[in-house]
Amino acid sequence: MTMKVAFIGFGGVGQALAEIFLKQQKGEKPSFGFEPEVVAVSDIMKGSVYHPNGLNIEELLSAVRDSGSLDAYPDQTGLIRGWDSMDTIKDTNADMIVEVTFTDVKTGQPAIDHCQTAFEHNKSVVTTNKGPVALAYDELSALAEKNDVFWGFEGTVMSGTPALRLPVMTLAGNEITEIKGILNGTTNYMITEMEKGKTYKEALEKAQSLGFAEADPVSDVEGYDARYKTAILANYLMGKKIASEDIYCKGISDLTLEMVKEALDENQKWRLLSRLTKREDGSVEASVKPELVDGNDPLAGVNGPTNAIVYECDLSGPIMLTGAGAGLIETGYSLFIDIIHYHRQNALTKL
Ligand code: HSE
């Protein structure tokens, strides 16, 4: 089955997914029963191309990598250039929109409008943008359901490590009473470096140079990035609509080398923990803050930019999942997981 795909945004994450599609086309990855056909790419900086019969993925990647622009994509009969994101979502023949634009997480835009427009035009969406899920989950999921389309956002929490689908699919049947986790790689990396003796400033500079940090690292160090992810977990896994600004949030900017050393001397470690706890009355308490964890706690063994999450389950007990929380290939892969699930769901409903 052919799946017609349009990319809205074509930065590193989008390109990583395009590479995976290319591997599928070359037979280096299983087909999973579908052949992705990239029909459109629209990027606010790099330009846009659309061909209803499909574009050449290798040519798309070379154009953006060699020249930084889709203008270098070769001309061919029927090729349309210059459509913006909305034209591309509404008027191309794509049935799957890959939404990977640069989004302002404070407003969730333009990703919220992109998702909304796609759903209104009966198109499915996969995205790694936290904004739409953290800020407009109820509205967008209702709209997707009403229009009988798929919305995948696995990569919004822990990139390609399946922090969202694992509890829903594999741990089904449990009641999850508490979730705690290290959901921000930059701060965990910084704390680990401070445990080795680096100052806060040195550790932050190193995290920035390695590319884990957000464009504005304030979002990492003050806990805002982890807070958006915590809101997504509350909405999606605990069924509680909690606005991210209502989540208690304290980052690591007050953490000193002395505090880190003192903790180590007591066989403890500081970790920036996101925590969601179900109360007796069914409400959920949510926080993001540095917490001291015992040296023997599995979370104390999570070092560097790695993320981890623990689900306290009533039947299976605590289940911990750990893995990358960022990275281009890992985040590109999270979109691929969503697309495989979309296809499987579609194939099942057609039986
Ligand atoms: N800046 C984020 C982090 C990237 O460090 O975890 C992934 O959301």
Automatic annotation (TrEMBL):
Record organism: Gracilibacillus orientalis
Domain Aspartate/homoserine dehydrogenase NAD-binding: 9-151
Family named by the database record: Belongs to the homoserine dehydrogenase family.
Ligand binding (NADP(+)): G9, F10, G11, G12, V13, G14
Residue ranges of domain Homoserine dehydrogenase catalytic in the record: 168-340
Pathway linked to the protein: Amino-acid biosynthesis; L-methionine biosynthesis via de novo pathway; L-homoserine from L-aspartate: step 3/3; Amino-acid biosynthesis; L-threonine biosynthesis; L-threonine from L-aspartate: step 3/5
Residue positions of the active site: K229 (proton donor)
Source superkingdom: Bacteria
GO MF term list: homoserine dehydrogenase activity; NADP binding
Binding-site list for L-homoserine: E214
Reactions performed catalytically: L-homoserine + NADP(+) = L-aspartate 4-semialdehyde + NADPH + H(+)
Keyword Metal-binding: no
InterPro entries in UniProt: Asp/hSer_DH_NAD-bd (IPR005106), HDH_cat (IPR001342), HDH_CS (IPR019811), HDH_short (IPR022697), NAD(P)-bd_dom_sf (IPR036291)
Keywords: Amino-acid biosynthesis, Methionine biosynthesis, NADP, Oxidoreductase, Sodium, Threonine biosynthesis
Protein name per UniProt: Homoserine dehydrogenase
A biological process term (GO) from this entry: threonine biosynthetic process
Binding site for NADPH: K130
EC number: 1.1.1.3
Pfam families (alphabetical): Homoserine_dh (PF00742), NAD_binding_3 (PF03447)
